[in-house]
Design goal:
Largest sheet: none
Order of helices and strands: HHHHHHHHHHHHHHHHH
Shape: globular
Oligomer: single chain
Number of helices: 17
Strand content: under 5%
Structural class: mainly alpha
Helix content: 55-70%
Length: 272
């Protein structure tokens, strides 16, 4: 089954809720960095040299070629696959993201396989995406919340802040793990400090209502909400469409190519 951005409302909800696409949006819109910038094997402006090095099995050169390709999705996927096959974990994850969200319309099973390759090779974003598939049962299988929580936890411990926010959400709700608002708050705080706005926002909500172990703290909630807004404002300016949507900047999100932003721009009933 091919997955497109409008195929499943649960996937769209997951995308907006989990917010890990902010990292992949950055990978698509700015130079790849990661393995490439640490291993400058070829000048990104001299693509012929990159192609020769890629053909010799230099993954970072293949990744630079993928990043340089802005218009041809199939061509970018070709270079990403070569990079993935030569050990560039983020390229594996980007292949999965393209599959899951419709850029190339390939089966969701391929997205899962690509995320697993990225995760196994050490890309924590790949682990976070893989966890999301297990949480939603996106391939049509029964969701495996326990496995999702374990993957989020491992990625969070390795420093991936969106995974901390996702595990915090599951912990707050008791999905796949024991319900524990205090533990959830610690995870949200870790995510917020790591630059993930949803962590700030969820922690603010805990401080605005009386739940087990929490008393109302409007001042703390206000400060957290302000940090969340600042992070989303920066993200939107840098081209992260989900941040624009969260801020109500639907036209900007639409300009960035997000169909959800375009839908919200044209349909007042879908705005929030």
């Amino acid at each position: 089954m091919a997955i497109t951005p409008t195929t499943s409302s649960s996937l769209i909800l997951f995308r907006c809720e989990l917010t890990v696409r902010r990292r992949l949006a950055a990978l698509v819109l700015v130079p790849l960095g990661l393995a490439c910038s640490r291993t400058p094997t070829c000048d990104a402006k001299q693509l012929a040299g990159c192609a020769k090095q890629c053909a010799r099995g230099t993954g970072a050169a293949c990744a630079r070629l993928a990043n340089a390709e802005r218009r041809d999705v199939a061509e970018r996927a070709k270079w990403d696959e070569k990079a993935c096959n030569n050990g560039v974990a983020p390229s594996c994850t980007r292949l999965g993201e393209a599959a899951e969200f419709g850029r190339g319309a390939v089966p969701i099973a391929r997205a899962q396989a690509a995320y697993k390759r990225g995760c196994d090779a050490g890309d924590q974003l790949g682990c976070a995406y893989l966890a999301g598939l297990f949480e939603t049962g996106a391939d049509g299988s029964t969701p495996d919340l326990g496995k999702a929580a374990r993957l989020y936890g491992a990625a969070c411990r390795a420093g991936e802040p969106t995974s901390c926010a996702s595990l915090g959400r599951m912990t707050e709700l008791g999905r796949g793990t024991k319900r524990d608002p205090k533990a959830a708050a610690k995870l949200f705080d870790q995510a917020c400090k790591g630059g993930e706005p949803s962590g700030c926002e969820r922690l603010a909500r805990l401080h605005r209502r009386s739940v087990a172990g929490f008393s109302s703290d409007p001042k703390r909630a206000n400060a957290l909400e302000a940090r969340g807004r600042a992070l989303r404002t920066r993200g939107c300016a840098e081209g992260v469409s989900i941040d624009c949507i969260a801020l109500g900047r639907y036209e900007r999100a639409c300009q960035l190519g997000d169909p959800d932003g375009c839908d919200r721009k044209s349909s007042p009933s879908r705005r929030r």
